[in-house]
Fold this protein.
Amino acid sequence: MTEPPRRTRAEQRRDTEARILSAARETFAELGYERTTIRAVAAAAGVRPGLVMHYFGSKEELFASAAHLPADELPPGDPAQALLSALRRRLEGAPVASLAVLRSMFTHDEAAEGFREAGREWLGSIERAIPAGQPELRAALIAAIMTGVVVDRYLLKHSALADAPADDVLELLRPCIESLAGAR
Amino acid sequence: MTEPPRRTRAEQRRDTEARILSAARETFAELGYERTTIRAVAAAAGVRPGLVMHYFGSKEELFASAAHLPADELPPGDPAQALLSALRRRLEGAPVASLAVLRSMFTHDEAAEGFREAGREWLGSIERAIPAGQPELRAALIAAIMTGVVVDRYLLKHSALADAPADDVLELLRPCIESLAGAR
C-alpha cells in the first residue's frame, strides 16, 4: 500500500472552507438568519471565530456563500425519472442549504435573492427537458411542488408528510410529475 | 324602499374588529412579524392605535387572532373539483392570512402554531373526502402542493407561476389533484 499523498495548503484551505460552509448551512437552517452568529458557526465547524471572519469577512458574506445552493442540473434522459430522483434525494435527507435559505428568506433579502438565483438555473434545466407546451409553467409547477414538499416535511411538520417513507410519497406523486413533465 | 336598520353598538364593534384584523393580516403579510407595529396596523385600518390595543391587548394577541385562518372546510361532493375550486381562490387573490402566517412563521413560534392549527382542520376535511388508500398522505401532499404554489406565486415570485393565469395553472394541475384525490 502506498502512503496517502500529503495534502497541499490549498487543499487544506478548501477542506476548512467546505467545513465552515456546511456548518453555516446547518446553523442558518436551525436558527434562521437573525439568530445565527459567527461564533455559533465556528463552534459547529470546530474552528476559531477569527478563521470564519478571515475566510468570509462577515455574516452577510458567509450567508451569501452558504445560500449559493449546489448546482442541481437535471441530467439528460427521461425528465420525469430525473425529477423523481431529485425529489427522492430531498425526501431522504433534509436539504440543509435550501432549508437555510427558506427559513431566512422571509426576513432577509439576500436569502430570497440566493434562492431565486439558484432556482433560476434549476428551473431552466427543467424547462429545457420538457417535451410539451408551456414548459416554463410546467417547470414552475414542478418546482412549486418540490418547495411545498420540503417546506411541509421539514419546516411545518404539520401533516403525514413529516414522517412518510420516501417510497410512498414518490409513488403517489409519480402521476403528477409525469403529467407535468409531459411524459408521453 | 325601507331605510337600512341602524346598526347596534355590538355590530359596530364587530365591524371595527374585522377591519383591524384585515389590516393586521395585510400588514403582517407585507412586513413580517418583527417589523409590524400596532401603529402601522391602526393606520391601515383607519383607527387610533389605542383602539387596537383596547380590542386586542398586544401585538402578540393581535397576531394570534389574525393568524387564525378562516375555516376552509372542503364542501361535500367531488373532492377533486372542490380542491381545484379552493386552489382557484388562492390563485385569483393572494391569501393574505396564510401569507401573513407563512412570512412570519419562521421567526415566530405563534405563527407556526397558528398555521399548524388551521392546517389540521383543513387536512382533516380533505382526508375524510378521499375515497382511496392512504388518505392522510394524499391529503398531506395536496396541502403541500397548495403551500408550494402559494409560496412560489406570492412570496418567492421566481418563476412563471408569479403571473400565470389561474386557468392555465388549474389545467396543468388537474391531473395531479385528481390522481391524489383518488378520483375514479
